[in-house]
Amino acid sequence: MQTMSEEKTASEGHAEGEAGTRSAELVKRARRQHGIEAVRTIIRFAMDRMRETQLQEVASSMTLTTLLSLVPLIAVAMSAFALFPSFADSRHALEEAIISGVLPQQYTETIVTYLRNFTDHASGLGIFGLAGLAVTALLLIDKFFVTVNRIYQVRRMRPWGQRALLYWALITLGPLVIAFSLTVSTQAIRSASEGVDATSVEWGMAVLQFAIQVASYTFLYKFVPNCHVQLSHAAVGGVSASFAGLAVREAFGHYVSAGTLTSIYGAFVAFPVLLLWFYVSWLIVFGGAAITATIPLLTSGRFADSYKRGNDFLTGVALLKTLWRHRREGETSVGITTLADEVDSYPQAARRILLRLAEKGYCVEIMSEKPKSHSDWALLCDPSAKSLRDACTALLVDGTNHLTSPKRASSSRDEGMLFDWYRGFMSAEMLAKPLDEVFTIDEEPQDVQAEQTARPA
């Protein structure tokens, strides 16, 4: 009898162990599936962001602009090395890093030789010629900044004075810092690898170059947009762009080595290779920015609503209601992070919508020493008189559309086809009511329910 009981206990323990193992496997599988789904979502939203900003067309125009501005950009950047002769080794280290880590392996010597010759010729120009080169280089950097800010949906760029200073520092000091870090790191690796085989040293150099690429991308994605970007989000974009660049460079090398382009272009093959590489490189750079800009979207609970029609209007009404409720509770201003959390959005999107509402006189951004990403907002309008009509025209239907415009005496154009419909739509009850009445509708059932709960039986 005791033996049967022991066997039963052992079998039950074995069954529980198998059940625990299956449960652990299911949890691992669910986590893996969740991770795969998260990556798919990031890629899908990043692709949507790229399509919205027409990055394929932008990359094409940036390719032509780069072709025209590359020599001026390199000439201005390398002029900083001429001012510091002690940085000659750093310049060579930077050129080697570009050859081995940025450009495709095939035809790199030809391309770099051309660029060196062009740069040497450009260095012989006078002061006005160098000024022209500097302006051309600054225009390339400015176009890059504008495109990245479009990806982040930033409406207000930095003032021109700040931008020019930032551009100049990026052109002149950026290569110096990268080259100096390359030189110091290379010397450190070589001194630490004495007695180590050459393969390990090559791997160390490759890892170093990859790390510098990640740091450079992270720096760009963090500081180029005129909005708050978390360092971790910028790092994810930097790592993604670096891995994509590494994979594309290898694939590009195999494609070029196949000889298809050589059989078509012959001795001029370096030119189309350079153009194609510029185009792919810009797509990678902007793709990393799109991934960085998408991550905050996914951290909000309503990230799927961001691409639904009318979301800006609904979010704007929710933001106004939040400001209205906080003011009724005695709070004159509310932080942008709090506002974004209460409407289940993210600060960049909330601020973008609030800026459009501010143009209609609903709210105001309180200027302080805080960064824009942590600014405070307050309700500016009189909620007993202001309605949602202006919010509708700001976020949903533009009243200046010719289909809804009235007939003007100064114009021969007739009134819009939808003028009467639009007038009736804008006079709808919920759009015509003051904010106090609109927002109290949702509050009354809660107040009645609270009173009934507090009332003794």
TrEMBL record:
Compartments, record wording? Cell membrane
Q: Which GO CC annotations does the UniProt entry carry?
A: plasma membrane
Chain segments carrying region Disordered: 1-24
User: Where is it chiefly localized?
Assistant: membrane
What is this entry's stated membrane topology? Answer: Multi-pass membrane protein
Alphabetized, the UniProt keywords read:
Cell membrane, Membrane, Transmembrane, Transmembrane helix
Say which domain of life the source belongs to: Bacteria
Provide the transmembrane region boundaries: 58-84, 125-145, 165-183, 252-271, 277-299
Q: What is this protein called?
A: YihY family protein
What is the species of this protein?
Sutterella wadsworthensis 2_1_59BFAA
